[in-house]
Design goal:
The complex is a heterodimer of chains A (576) and B (336). Chain A is an alpha/beta fold and 576 residues long. Chain B has helices at 6-33, 38-50, 56-66, 73-85, 100-134, 140-149, 157-171, 191-228, 231-238, 243-270, 275-280, 286-295, 299-327. The chains are: A alpha/beta (576), B mainly alpha (336).
């Protein structure tokens, strides 16, 4: 292996001309990447990390343009290539694994066809036997069996699709792989497996790797060097050890401290005088022997719980994708009836409510969902989303009253109402939108809030703020919350009680200090081991260990018993 | 994928039959709600022709009997249901006593030939042009010329038809003015006849194509804009695939899916034809038949044509339901 860099960026500047003037997305960036080295590009949305990567691919979206500087891929000046030259360099010399691998594969083509067309486009090979051999080899290098090639994308899980994208990335053994947040849509267990796969194949072909992301923990476990970007400027660059142990730039320090840890200081600051929102004999939310099946699959195994809600509580439901946690959320919201058993709100079976009761229930039980982009109608200004339910539920006394309520709600989540309310959704960041959704829920003074992965789609640096907003709903407004997440570190900090779900069963439950701080069930341990932390001395484990753990759980060799780790007043749980 | 499960097929067939039954019932009920009595109209027509009609009451009763109108409604209904199964729609009132089915059978092949051909041409041209409007590597000319050509879509077919006739038939005399085939050729599977049909069909077909391709082009343009932003198109570029290949296999292949459903719905409607186009070109198809039937208040013919339209729409939707899982692997036949 030579020491000649695979990528040299010299004084690279990228501009986006807009009607309001030219936006400099990347400013005078200098960076070299050596063969076999993994470099992390870290920074929040809009910091220029993806833009830089796309410039290397010569795939900048219009009207973006490279304003100056050099992009050298080995000895090739990428800026001097013609269109055909750029096409040939893509994938065969520099591969791009895009963000959002969920939709990165053509839905109407079989997986192997999408590997073959890449080979054919670059090498002209059309021999079916040769193509089949190459695609099988690529799939097995990322741990996927041959038959996956015959499937269509929708038949694969998120983790499998991401592996297919990695297989595609290495199929022509490029000099450089650019992976743009390859695991942001995956849960922690799958994330760890996919990152291991990526590292393994990258080592095997000896290419350079650029890993784009915003999670300092993941970077610490995955890369050799870190490049910290802010507003298009490279603010810090060094080995991951240098940067994590002695960050120089305040922004880097912020990024590191924004990662919530299990244990350590909480980012919350409880008021100490949590009000109660209600007094009543009936429990706020109750599951009576609830089971949910979809066809042959049992999403939720028989389960009973009672949340009395007299003193507000945050109950966390944690688990990977497919664990049944979101199904529980939709059962509680009444979007989905249970197959057996009853879901009751204040003693009323929610599937048997009258129209008036149902309306009252909708007001009292609010939701915050994962995707802050999909929750607003792009057609209206955001104040419409706040105003409409407020008036619909008959809470508005007058226009002035509505306005006041909106302003108070915005203040409560730390948004300036005069800057935010008259805007359209596309003019706000993901974090701002998610806080507005919390504000919207708050305006209706609900008794219960179902928060389903409320922070998994926002920048790491904003997660703490939004969780603080949600925590305040309990702490200052007396609202009980069911917090559904795959992120155990945040559950550790915000919740009063944690249930760990695996394949629709509660495997471990109790107060967070016990369940997450000192897990007893092998599945809870697996989840916690999978969390990437910005700690270089921590062993992130091997994929074999994870596979073995999952295998043992699935075959019932371990962990068949639910483990209860203690109670909190006002909540009781029983599983069959 | 694979074979169509039997339970799904039976399910779809039941839906198909139900749709046809409900629609057939509606087109039976609606004329009966109208105060117009077909026998009255015919008698009126005779009176207008001859000045007066002797023993009018007897004639009326006779006519009513020949349409079965003297029987109780429920009997009429079940007879009607039985009759439409054999495509027997009774007698035309305007061209009494010709059977409606023979009128339709005479007109249907002309319309099917003209319309299906022009629909297919329009579908291909419209979608391709719509795709080219969006594709970033389209020739510059295409981006200017296609939107300009869309102006034709806003011209009423009656006008563009007349324009075409005036230029190509009257002035240049390249094509005949009217008719479906020449007066001198004998209908049959002879080269002369086929040639004459093509020659006569060209202008009406072109007229239909230029006024309707915009529908497909605009729809396709919207779908292509969505597909263009999909992650799989970005990845296809990052894979270094050739532009044309990306256009066909990644973009158009996905964008065309909703258009295929629209195509199936159009097939049924086109049986009624471009009424005005057929009228202008004196093309003896279903459109002209329908037009004349409406003018003459010839209910049995209107009913028969409506039934054929319903049948064709229901059948083409049924077929799309069956083939869709083969063109979009994400859609499954229920029960498989």
């Amino acid at each position: 292996m030579t020491d000649k860099p695979v990528l040299t960026l010299k004084d690279l500047s990228i501009e986006f001309p807009t009607p309001k003037g030219v936006v400099e997305a990347v400013k005078a960036l200098d960076l070299t990447i050596n063969p076999g080295v993994r470099v992390g590009f870290i920074g929040e949305s809009g910091s220029g990390k993806t833009t830089t990567a796309l410039a290397v691919m010569r795939m900048l979206a219009n009207p973006g343009r490279i304003a100056g500087g050099e992009i050298m891929l080995g000895d090739t000046d990428m800026r001097a290539l013609d269109e055909e030259g750029i096409r040939k360099a893509r994938l065969s010399r520099v591969a791009y694994i895009p963000q959002g691998a969920m939709n990165s594969l053509n839905p109407v083509m079989r997986i192997e066809d999408q590997l073959w067309d890449a080979i054919t486009a670059h090498e002209g090979t059309t021999d079916p036997a040769e193509l089949k051999r190459r695609s099988d080899e690529a799939l097995s290098s990322v741990g996927l069996p041959d038959h996956v090639g015959r499937l269509y994308p929708h038949e694969l899980s998120g983790g499998m699709k991401q592996r297919v994208c990695i297989a595609l990335g290495v199929i022509l053994t490029p000099e450089l792989i650019i992976a743009d947040e390859p695991t942001s849509a995956l849960d922690v267990v799958t994330q760890r497996q996919v990152m291991h796969t990526l590292q393994e194949v990258q080592k095997k072909i000896g290419s350079g790797l650029i890993l784009i992301g915003h999670d300092m923990g993941l970077m610490a476990q995955s890369v050799d060097e870190l490049a910290v970007l802010k507003n298009g400027v490279l603010v810090e660059h060094g080995t991951v050890k240098q940067i994590i142990e002695a960050p120089k730039h305040p922004y880097t320090q912020d990024l590191i401290s924004s990662v919530p840890l299990v244990g350590g200081d909480s980012f919350l600051d409880p008021s100490g005088k949590t009000p109660s929102n209600r007094a009543g004999a009936e429990p706020l939310m109750e599951f009576r022997d609830v089971t949910k099946r979809y066809g042959q699959v049992t999403a939720v195994h028989p389960m009973s719980f009672q949340l009395d809600g007299e003193v507000p509580k945050i109950i966390s439901i944690v688990g990977q994708s497919g664990s049944g946690k979101s199904t529980m959320g939709s059962l509680m919201l009444g979007f989905n009836p249970p197959t057996e058993g009853q879901v009751l709100f204040e003693g009323q079976d929610i599937s048997k409510m009258s129209a008036a009761q149902s309306l009252e229930f909708r007001k009292n039980v609010q939701a915050v969902f994962q995707d802050p982009y999909g929750c607003f109608n792009p057609f209206y200004r955001v104040d419409h989303a706040l105003k409409f339910p407020f008036k619909q539920f008959g809470l508005a006394k007058s226009e002035a009253h509505t306005q006041q309520a909106m302003e108070e709600a915005c203040d409560a989540v730390g948004l300036d109402p005069s800057l935010i309310l008259r805007r359209y959704p596309h003019q706000l960041s993901g974090g701002q939108r998610q806080r507005l959704i919390v504000a919207r829920a708050l305006m209706l003074s609900p008794k219960l809030l179902i928060a389903d992965e409320p922070v998994s789609m926002v920048d790491a640096s904003l997660r703490a703020t939004i969780l603080k907003n949600i925590y305040d709903l309990k702490d200052r407004y007396g609202i009980s919350i069911l917090y559904i997440t795959h992120d155990l570190a945040t559950a550790y900090h915000v919740s009063d009680y944690v249930m760990v779900l695996y394949h629709g069963r509660v495997v471990e439950a109790g107060p967070p200090k016990e369940v997450i701080g000192d897990p007893h069930h092998p599945y809870t341990r697996l989840l916690i081991d999978s969390i990437p932390w910005p700690d270089l001395n921590r062993d992130w484990g091997t994929p074999e260990e994870a596979d073995r753990a999952i295998h043992m759980l699935d075959t019932g060799q371990v962990g068949t018993e639910s483990i209860f780790r203690g109670d909190v007043p006002g909540f009781s749980l029983k599983v069959a | 994928m694979g074979r169509i499960p039997r339970s799904y097929l039976i399910n779809r067939l039941i839906t198909l039959l139900l749709t046809i039954w409900i629609a057939a019932t509606l087109i039976w009920i609606i004329p009966r709600l109208s105060p117009v009595d077909p026998a009255d109209i015919m008698l009126g027509r005779m009176a207008a022709g001859a000045g007066s009609v002797a023993n009018a009451d007897e004639m009326l009763a006779q006519l009513r009997a020949s349409f079965g109108l003297d029987q109780p409604l429920i009997v009429q209904y079940f007879k009607y249901l039985g009759n439409i199964l054999t495509f027997d729609f009774g007698l035309s009132t305007a061209s009494f006593p010709t059977e409606v089915s023979s009128l339709i059978m005479r007109a249907l092949p002309w319309t099917l030939g003209l319309m299906i051909l022009s629909l297919i041409i329009t579908f291909v041209i419209g979608n391709l042009l719509g795709a080219l409007m969006v594709w970033e590597h389209s020739p510059k000319l295409a981006k200017v010329a296609i939107p300009a050509a869309m102006v034709f879509t806003s011209i009423p077919p009656i006008l563009s038809g007349l324009l075409l006739m005036w230029i190509f038939a009257a002035k240049l005399q390249w094509f005949p003015l009217t008719g479906a085939y020449g007066l001198t050729v004998e209908p049959g599977w002879t080269w002369d006849f086929v040639q004459s049909v093509i020659w006569h069909g060209t202008l009406p077909a072109v007229s239909i194509v230029i006024v309707t391709f915009g529908f497909w082009a605009l729809g396709m343009r919207g779908l292509m804009i969505t597909v263009q932003g999909e992650d799989y198109v970005t990845l296809a570029k990052a894979k270094g695939l050739k532009n044309r290949y990306i256009l066909y296999r990644y973009m158009i292949r996905n964008a065309i899916l909703p258009q295929i459903t629209a195509f199936a719905l159009k097939i049924g409607l086109l049986i009624a034809g471009q009424v005005l186009v057929e009228r202008i070109f004196a093309y003896n198809g279903m459109g002209k038949l329908l037009y004349d039937a409406i003018l003459d208040q010839d209910f049995p013919v209107i009913q028969g044509i409506s039934y054929v339209i319903i049948l064709m729409t229901a059948l083409s939707v049924f077929l799309v339901d069956l083939i869709y899982p083969f063109i979009d692997p994400r859609i499954k036949h229920e029960g498989s």
